[in-house]
Design a protein that fits this description.
The chain has 8 helices and 19 strands. By secondary structure, it is α+β, with helices and mostly antiparallel strands. The strands form 5 sheets. A 6-stranded antiparallel β-barrel has the order 1-2-3-6-5-4. It starts with a helix and ends in a 5-residue tail after the last strand.
Length: about 375
């Protein structure tokens, strides 16, 4: 090709070429970038390799759950002390109850004390904001309930809750072949079977205009959370602190738990625990925690060498929990008759296996020992 032909080709217009668009930025974008992006980033600012990108199923689930997800800011007097998220779990007329993290009202100087003159403001998906009334809170579970009152007669959007069912059989005759779960919107269900490796989606709402929804996804893991609250589970994804108190949802948009924050993963409290705590408060007028006097873990979470010994000794036990530790208070409170029932009646035992490096004894009776 000679010089003249090249010149003519360059001069001819390209029908597919478009003029570059100028970058547009709104006032809200500028406010976020200048004042909040570094200290209080959104989920999207995290470049974490184990965070799963949202597929279409995840996006649909987020869209179903997002109307009930709120952004929260707490103040001690006029000082802003925390920013987080929450979920509307109940609506009665124009009032609603938000479940969130007790970190929102915690005093910075005291681990288990409420900040002085604390006030909480909730920001909904439609841009409306409401002052919150603080109801019960529990620093052990790190949860709190807030009440909001809307001026509109329209009911507030509420989340669908699905109690987590993590019972998994270790029967070697039932080999599991993992299948992709197709997305399908379904009516509210009472429970959802969660298996390690399943995807859960963390959802929160940012606390400044335009109050964007935030979401990221990760895999449910059996790895433990090293916290005093033994009920915590974990998902291998990472959120920012603005998502604390938000929700983990499944592919159906159902709330499975309350999100917290850690480096490298996200702990969550199963909604089973939180909803029972709330129901007990409504029934009794005060929050209480159940006490079993035992520390247990799911049977399937045990090391494989322990599972082999259990299956060899109890060939028909494939589901249940392992009692890892029994408190001295429990030993004192349980009667001799109940101890005999524990040790002799396996149907009442409900597949509980007592695991110890030394034999556990109840009132002189030797417990089941798995070496």
């Amino acid at each position: 090709m000679d010089f003249e032909s090249k010149k003519r080709k360059l001069a001819s217009p390209n029908p597919w070429q478009r003029d570059p668009k100028e970058a547009s930025i709104t006032f809200d974008d500028m406010n976020y970038l200048m004042n909040h992006a570094l200290k209080r980033p959104k989920f999207a600012a995290l470049l974490v390799k184990h965070n799963i990108c949202l597929d279409m199923y995840s996006k649909r689930a987020v869209l179903k759950a997002s109307p009930s997800i709120v952004g929260l800011i707490s103040y001690s007097g006029k000082e802003e002390i925390f920013q987080g998220s929450g979920t509307i779990i109940e609506s009665d007329g124009n009032s609603g109850v938000i479940l969130t993290s007790a970190t929102l009202i915690r005093c910075r100087m005291g681990r288990n004390s409420v900040a002085d003159d604390v006030k909480v403001v909730a920001h909904l998906s439609n841009g409306h904001s409401f002052d919150c009334q603080i109801l019960p809170f529990d620093f052990h579970y790190n949860i709190a309930a807030l009440k909001i009152q809307s001026e509109s007669d329209a009911p507030l959007p509420t989340a669908c809750l699905a109690h987590l069912d993590d019972s998994i059989s270790v029967d070697p005759n039932q080999l599991y072949i993992r299948e992709e779960k197709p997305f399908q919107l379904r009516p509210h269900s009472k429970s959802f079977n969660l298996i390690p490796g399943d995807t859960l989606i963390a959802v929160g709402r940012y606390f400044i205009k335009p109050y964007d929804v935030m979401a990221t996804a990760g895999e449910f893991s059996l790895d433990r959370c090293e916290y005093d609250c033994k009920e915590l589970l974990r998902v291998n994804c990472q959120i920012t602190r603005c998502g604390i108190g938000g929700s983990f949802i499944n592919y159906y948009g159902e709330v499975m738990g309350i999100c917290f924050h850690d480096m490298g993963f996200t702990p969550f409290l199963p909604i089973n625990v939180a909803s029972k705590w709330w129901e007990h408060y409504k029934r009794c007028g005060e929050p209480r925690r159940p006490w079993l006097g035992m520390e247990v873990t799911n049977l399937y979470a045990a090391d494989v060498d322990i599972l082999e010994k259990i299956v060899q000794k109890f060939p028909n036990v494939f589901k249940g929990v392992i009692v890892e530790e029994v408190s001295s208070c429990f030993m004192q409170l349980v009667s001799k008759r109940l101890c005999n029932l524990f040790l002799k009646d396996r149907s009442t035992l409900a597949n509980i296996v007592i695991l110890s490096h030394s034999c556990i004894k109840f009132e002189g009776h030797e417990g089941i020992r798995v070496p």
